[in-house]
Structures are given as C-alpha cells and as structure tokens.
Amino acid sequence: MDAQSGMPLFAASFDFDDSACTPAPSDEGSRDVGNTIVVEKAILASPSRTFASSDDSSQGQGDEEAGVFDRPVDVEDESRKRKMIAIAMGCCIIFLVVIVPVLVFVGQQQKRSDISATVAMDIPETMSPSTSNEPSSSPSNKPSISPTMTTEPSSTPSSSASPSSIPSFLPTVTTEPTTTPSAHPSISTQPTSSPSAFPSAAPFVLFTYGESLYTDNDLGIQISVGLTAKQIAQTGSRVSYANGGQSSISYHDAMDGAGIAQLPDGGYAYLSNAEKSSGAGGVYGLYFNKDGHITDYKALLTGTSRNCGGGMSPWNTWISCEETGGGQCWQIEPDPNKPNHNSPKATLLGGPSGGDYETVAVDNTNKNKPVFFVTEDESDGELRRFEADGYGWDALHVGGRTTYLEFLDGNRFQWTTSLSAGENSAASYYPNAEGIIYHNSTLYFVAKVTRTLFILDLNDMTYTSERTGSSWVGQGSFNSQPDQIIESDLDERKYIYFTEDGGSAPGVHVRDREGKYYTMVRGVPGGRYSGDETAGIAFSPDRKKFYFGFQDAGVLMEVTRYDGHVFN
C-alpha cells in the first residue's frame, strides 16, 4: 500500500499479513518506488506464504525502526514438520509399548520351543504341565521335561542383565542346575548330581483303553490314544541288537504264548512258544538288558510240537505246553547261569498219557505246596489241578497229586479224582478251555468255542460266567474267540488282558474288575491282519513295556505309554 495515498499497489487474493509489507517511514516522507516494486515481486513470487511483521517481539528494536523485513517463514511447512515429528514420536511410543513386549514374548516362546524340541527327541509325545504345588525334596538325576505353571513371584532375582518392564506369564527356563530346591519346580535340560527318590518321567496322563483309537498305517494297527507301538521282530528275519549286531538265527515262526522272566542282572527274557507241528515247535528267548534293549536271541527248547500256551512258575522258569495228541508241559530255565538252562524237561502236569494242553496258572499261597492249573484245548478237555510236593525245579518232576474240575448244580464246583467226570464236565460247560490265570483266591479261564469267561471262587467253591466282550466301552469290539489271558496283581484296576483268534480286526482287549471290556490295540479292520490271531502278550518286569504279536504275520510289537509311566 502506498504510504501517502493509502491505495494498494496491487490487488490479489493471496492470504498474507499486509502489515508485513508496510514500509518503514523515511526522512523524505515517502518510500522509494523501487522498494515497493521489490516487495511486490517478493509477494508475487510467494503468494501462499505469510510473513512475520517487523514489530514481532522476537525482532530487535533497530530492525523495527529501520523497517527491515524479517526472513520469511513457511508456516505450512512448519506445520507439516511438526506433524511429522508428532507421528515419529507416536511411532516410537507404540514401538516401545507394544512391539518390544511382543518381540520379548516371541523370543521367550522360541527359546522354550527350542528346548522342548531337543527334549522331545527322547520322550513320549503326550505332555501336560505338572500340577504339583509341592517343592522337590531332592534334586533329580534326570532332566524334568514338564514345565510348571505358577502365578507366584520368584523368591530369587532374575538372571537377566536388566529387568523386564512387562510381567512374564511363562515358565522360567534354565540350563544350569540350582544349588538349592526352588519354591516351585523348574525346567532344566541338565541332570542334577544326585538321584531322585522317584523316577523323573513325563507327567502321568490318565487315559482309558479304547476310549479313542488312532490308526498307525505303517504297522497296520489301531491303538488306544495314549499308547505307541513299534515292531521289534519279524518271522524269517534276524533280530537286531542294541549294539548294532544281529542274531545268528531268524526269528521263529508261528509265535504263540509268551512269558517274561526277570534275570539277576536287571535284564529280562521274553520267552515265546513256536506252534509248529511235527517236531518243528519249541521255545525261543529274546533277551533284554536292564534298559529294555535287545541283546540276544536264541532257541531254548527244540524238537517239540505245537507249543501253544504256558505260564511262569514261582521260581521263574517257563512252562511250555504242547497242543497235540500226547503232548506234554515242558519246564525251561531261561537264566543262562542256572544249571538247568540247557536241560529243558517234561513235567508231571500232563500226566502219563499227555494231551492237547494250552496254558498254566499257579497258586503260590502255600510255598511248600504250590498248586498248578492246566487247561486243555479239546471239546472234552478237562481242567487239571496239580498240587506239588515241594518248591523249585524238581517239584514239577517228582511226586504231586492231580485232580480235575467238575461243575455241580447251583453254580458250585469241586475237584474230583475222576478223569472221566472232569471230561464230562468240560464237554457240558467249558469245551476247548484256553487261557487261565490265578489271582487272590480266584481262578479265571476262558472256553474258546463258547466265548465264555469263567470266574471260580476257590474259597467258597462257587463260580460265575459271562460272555467275553458282553459289556463294551469305547471304540473297537471283541467278537471273535478269546485265547490267552494275562493279569498282574500290581494293577489296582485288576485288568485282564485277552488275545483274540480270528475276525477282521483281531486285537488285544481288556476287562476291568467291574466286567467292562475295552480294546487296547487291534488290526485295522479288513487290513493285513484280517483272520489272524493276536498272541504272545506279556509285560516287562517294570510294566512299562507291553509285548504282543500277530501269529500268522509273524510280527512282534512293543507297546509303551506316551508318558513313559507303567501300565495301569
């Protein structure tokens, strides 16, 4: 604007402070036109900018008096810069508050995953966090593989170089043993220096046989969730040893009844019958060390025929029964260091005429006179009771007294000296008797053809019976003939384990003390084992391994729990 006339020098719709364009007064009372043109050019060159006035408090008095223009300031650019700074600061805050804790959390998860992956190579698959709230009273000699969740604060400072600003809800992982017991169990990948009072296995996982079956296509089986299996021997192939070697002979054909003998060195022998005819049968021993690894395989009895079932004696020998006309029950010593190891011998259990014998059970309540029970797989095959005159190897070869089971009216029974009475009772009530076990004054045995389980109370001399598989729980079925049975007094639920002969999915089935049946493992229905029979069921001495096989296929398998605990 002209200082004298007050008229604008130009007209434009620019947004700016016109006070910034007011020239300072001069002695001559007017502003040089050249200056006005300069200002006009400056304004036209930067129409969007607003200039600060020369009377701004930040300017010096000399400048105000001289009317010197301040350096132009781009307000929009400044505003944009302030916005960018604010955004950057916001990003930093978000990074510190959100991203950093997430990265810390992911890192902790990865560390735990790495440790878990390392430990998982040697442990069962099924895991669950420990729920114990009690501290360990002594250090363990094995790494603990189960994280313990706790909401309690740690009583000792963290080993981290700097404290975390975010509370952690993950278990603490340490790779070094502590010198004192912690307030809560911790994860350690290193064993401690002294043994624990109890095994440091995976957490116990409760499951029910047959509640859910999963298919192992490689093995051709369906097995209860909570269990896993592997093949350890195959008919016609040499047995692989833990040291990398192999057996000098191939695994035997037609495997059938089996037992486990514990050895003085902590190992054990799996004793397996061979049900081959014409003198091609016998008994073979698969030897394991104390860690459950195979170390040897050899023949223990040869030259016999159709060795079917059998049973263990109270003095840890195996009794193998021939299921053939005139067959006998043979005693075998599995311990290589015992004098009778290489001298198997026929016992008195089968009598002078012999028979088609199956399985043996023993009542060792009176150790001076143990009582043996023997089944015979014939339509009129009597159940024999042999009372020995002593204890040990010779008790089955000298002396003794034999009687026979006779059922009476009113679900009663007696032991008779009449062989014919025993045969008639068998033909009428229990034809083709097979597996038999004794437990707590009770005798259990199965009649194969009628698929019946008989339960004899030896104290009050009464009996009951039921059809096998009649009260079913879970998946699977038990529709074919029962064969061998085993049981263990270590099992609080008093499970009885059955093998099955025939059907599209022969399996191993279980009965609890309430009379309910379950499937433990079976062949895939209609699969490679269709029409076969399961055989050779036995537990390792510590009950952490279970053995069974398919007779025709010639496959022997070892079953364990995922969590590594004993079967129960």
Counted by DSSP, the helix tally is 4
Alpha carbon gyration radius: 44 Å
Helix/strand/pairing category: alpha+beta
Rounded mean pLDDT is 78
Strand % is 25-35%
Question: Distance between the terminal alpha carbons, to the nearest Å?
Answer: 105 Å
Tell me the number of strands: 31
Folded structure, characterized:
- The strands form 7 sheets. Strands 12, 13, 14, 15, 16, 17, 18, 19 and 20 form a 9-stranded antiparallel beta sheet that branches. A 6-stranded antiparallel beta sheet has the order 3-4-28-27-26-25, with no helix packed on it.
- The chain has 4 helices and 31 strands.
- By secondary structure, the chain is α+β, with helices and mostly antiparallel strands.
- The relative contact order is 0.09.
- It is elongated and about 120 Å long.
- The longest helix has 45 residues, at 75-119.
What is this structure's SSE topology?
Elements: H1 33-45, H2 61-66, H3 75-119, E1 173-174, E2 187-188, E3 213-216, E4 221-224, E5 227-234, E6 238-240, E7 246-250, E8 255-262, E9 268-274, E10 282-288, E11 294-302, E12 307-312, E13 318-327, E14 329-332, E15 345-346, E16 355-363, E17 371-376, E18 384-387, E19 401-408, E20 412-416, H4 419-429, E21 433-439, E22 442-447, E23 452-457, E24 462-467, E25 481-487, E26 496-501, E27 507-511, E28 517-523, E29 534-539, E30 546-550, E31 555-561
Parallel strand pairs: 1-2
Antiparallel strand pairs: 3-4, 4-28, 5-31, 6-7, 8-9, 9-10, 10-11, 12-13, 13-14, 13-16, 14-15, 16-17, 17-18, 18-19, 19-20, 21-22, 22-23, 23-24, 25-26, 26-27, 27-28, 29-30, 30-31
